[in-house]
């Protein structure tokens, strides 16, 4: 897939936490632009699937000073910053992923809003 021009791929590592992850997807898809980071690059998200944001949530995040990227899923890591672990029950979509919070030395594997495992 890496040789096809319409795919984008990324590998992200946090060696101090023993975490290595990757993502591949169509360039214009929800997965493009990964990993998604907060402003300080202390929280990162790799995901697969789609997640839907209402305009009100997006506006609230911007009002609180978050700089949302152009990628469709960039708002998610900022939403985690605001919601903490409640983030997993508040997202809406068909989504699974790996969320890494280096400040708290935590990582979460999650599948939609129906399951989350802290590692």
Brief summary:
The protein has 119 residues and is of the alpha+beta class. The chain contains three helices and seven strands, in the order ββββαααβββ. It has a single domain (7-118), classed as Aminohydrolase, N-terminal nucleophile (Ntn) domain (Glutamine Phosphoribosylpyrophosphate, subunit 1, domain 1).
- Quaternary state of this entry equals single chain
Strand content: 35-45%
Mean pLDDT: 83
Strand numbers in spatial order across the main sheet: 3-4-5-6-7
Rg from alpha-carbon coordinates = 14 Å
CATH superfamily: Aminohydrolase, N-terminal nucleophile (Ntn) domain
Summarize the structure in words.
The chain has 119 residues and is of the alpha+beta class. It is built from three helices and seven strands, in the order E-E-E-E-H-H-H-E-E-E. The strands form two sheets. It has a five-stranded antiparallel β-sheet, covered by helices on one side. A two-stranded antiparallel sheet has the order 1-2. A hairpin with a 4-residue loop joins strand 1 and strand 2. The longest helix has 9 residues, at 55-63. The model is unreliable at 115-119 (pLDDT under 50).
């Amino acid at each position: 897939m890496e040789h096809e021009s319409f795919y984008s791929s990324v590998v992200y590592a946090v060696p101090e936490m023993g975490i290595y992850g990757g993502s591949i997807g169509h360039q214009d898809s929800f997965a493009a632009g990964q990993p998604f980071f907060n402003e300080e690059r202390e929280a990162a998200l790799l995901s697969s699937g789609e997640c839907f944001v209402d305009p009100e949530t997006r506006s609230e995040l911007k009002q609180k000073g978050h700089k949302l990227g152009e990628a469709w899923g960039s708002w998610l890591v900022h939403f985690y910053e605001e919601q903490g672990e409640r983030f997993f029950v508040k997202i809406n979509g068909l989504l699974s992923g790996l969320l890494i919070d280096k400040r708290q030395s935590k990582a979460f594997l999650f599948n939609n809003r129906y399951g989350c495992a802290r590692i």
